Amino acid sequence: MSNQNRVDFSTIFEKLYNFYGDRLCSVDKFKDPYKILISCIISLRTKDEITEKSSNALFSMASDPYQMLKLSSDQISQAIFPAGFYRKKGEQILYITKTIIEKHNGRVPDNLNELLLIKGIGRKSANLVLSLGYQIPAICVDTHVHRISNRIGLVETTTPEKTEIQLSKKIEKDYWIRINNLFVLHGKNICVPISPKCSNCPISSLCKKNSVNKSR
Question: The whole model's pTM is what?
Answer without folding.
Answer: 0.87
